[in-house]
Design brief:
Elements lengths: L14 H23 L7 H26 L11 H38 L25 H16 L6 H11 L2 H7 L6 H15 L3 H12 L9 H21 L5 H11 L4 H11 L1
Length: 284
């Protein structure tokens, strides 16, 4: 008669051993949970993927151990806390996995976009593959109101209105374009999908169509140089400067506001320095 196999004589683990195994799984999961809670922008895709792999191992081990506990002869269903533990572990598992997978996507999308642009995939429909347009560099904005309109129009054209560009990437580009005051304004905001629109609205409230922008353009109009001698070149420069200022004013001032702004600028230009400074503080 053949001898019984060693596997058939193997004694199942005790409830104490299974409980200890479950505890070890939960402790290992806590390490990943702490990684999520203290997630840093310096973390890499590899950091996340390693933990995703470990997370799947823990989930499988937890599920197998839980089945062994429920089917154990010493398991007592009455007053058992194991079902509650499984529910909590399951909720935490899905929360952590969702977070990590979203972070992988956020970190990989800029790389995919950059590779796509390098390969020419970002060319407009109908453009031949052999056509390569010059790369447009995003403008840096440091808070100078004279540069706001050109920055705004270029950024909205290249980034803001791109429907196929995720909001979180738009925020990444926006932060990279700012220096000085505007950078400090939005720096407290983390780079997330929801915060992009918040940051953009903050910049619009501060710089777009502001009193300071209007005032600077009106002042530029009055500061145009006077021609001291007949010169075709100087005349062209004067007219071009005049047209440029008027075009800018048309973007930030309603026609009905022209009169007030022009008259106020004429009046304040004739005030003494102390009174003028007081007026600027009140009207800012």
């Amino acid at each position: 008669m053949p001898a019984a196999s060693s596997s058939s004589n193997k004694k199942p683990p005790s409830m104490r051993a299974l409980t200890a195994r479950l505890k070890e799984i939960q402790l290992s999961f806590s390490d990943i949970w702490r990684f999520v809670q203290s997630f840093k922008e310096s973390n890499t895709v590899t950091d996340i993927e390693v933990r995703l792999g470990k997370l799947e191992e823990l989930w499988e081990s937890f599920s197998d151990t839980f089945v062994e506990i429920l089917s154990h002869d010493d398991y007592n269903a009455e007053g058992s806390a194991y079902e509650k533990e499984r529910m909590e572990f399951s909720d935490n598992y899905y929360e952590v996995k969702t977070f990590l997978m979203d972070k992988v996507k956020e970190l990989q999308e800029p790389q995919v976009l950059e590779q796509s642009l390098r390969a020419g995939d970002g060319l407009p429909h109908g453009t031949s593959d052999h056509v390569r347009l010059p790369q447009i560099k995003l403008q840096i904005f440091n808070g100078d109101v004279d540069e706001w309109l050109s920055f705004r129009d270029l950024f909205t054209s290249l980034i803001h209105w791109k429907v196929d560009l995720p909001e979180v990437e738009k925020f990444h580009y926006l932060k990279g374009c700012l220096q000085g005051e505007p950078k400090s304004l939005i720096d407290p905001l983390q780079i997330t999908k929801a915060n992009y629109q918040v940051a953009w609205e903050m910049l619009l409230r501060r710089y777009n169509n502001s009193k300071q922008l209007k005032k600077r353009q009106v002042q530029s109009l009055f500061n145009l140089p006077s021609l001291s001698k007949e010169s075709v070149t100087d005349l062209h420069v004067l007219v071009e400067g005049f047209e440029r200022i008027v075009q800018t004013l048309d973007q930030v001032i309603q026609p009905a506001d022209y009169k007030d702004l022009l008259l106020v600028n004429i009046l304040t230009a004739r005030l003494d320095p102390v009174t003028r400074r007081g007026w600027e503080e009140v009207s800012a």
